[in-house]
């Protein structure tokens, strides 16, 4: 059963028309629709033509006697009642960089989509980038998402690398629909952060180190091991306990990734983890990465 209501869908379509946005962007209608629908094998509403591709050409190009909003009410595409995933795909295609180049239009449409989708607990978010242009995906809203995204943005500011930004975006956007991918990327985030610290300090690391070893050597490099905390420091025992727990966090994320993440093949009986487990791994990895990177920045 669909969770995005007809009311939400109709509101979005109404806003699009009121604001004067053309759904197909800079593409011809048939080219836009062909990105999601097989027009050649879709029934025609005009018996002079064998398929939808033909009658769309006839009534939108040759004669131009269909209204501009015809697509929103055509039962072949069924946008008011189709699966939630298909509806979200349609919206994401509207703001795909191949379809729409104007950043202000993309931003406005994204706002319209999310302002309405939030009532049904859905959202459209950036998944990755191609040629520095955002690619979007629809998903169920993630509780606590703001905290996770804030951490991700902090890491992006420090590392400032396109690859890292894409990995963080994918990690965040995969939590709900593909938690195993998020878990795998959480491990990679820690690895990337540690290796970046070694590189910036012009120190060597062994490419064969596993994650716990890499983490251990990074904390040594940053003088964050329990032995680096003098006993006379205030709350020394508590600080040492926290630092000692860092290795446990890393080892745990590594083990979860090995068992459930994206880096290993699974048999047919495999049952993956739930989004809440991915949120835990992503949150822990992000917090740890920020701590290491900020310490590195302070101790430069």
Automatic annotation (TrEMBL):
Give every AbiJ-NTD3 domain span.
3-168
Which organism encodes this protein?
Answer: Patiriisocius marinus
- Do you know which Pfam families this protein is assigned to? Abi_C (PF14355), AbiJ_NTD3 (PF18860)
InterPro entries named among the record's database cross-references: Abi-like_C, AbiJ-NTD3
- According to UniProt, the name of this protein is Abortive infection protein-like C-terminal domain-containing protein
Q: Which residues form the Abortive infection protein-like C-terminal domain?
A: 212-294
Domain of life of the organism in this record? Answer: Bacteria
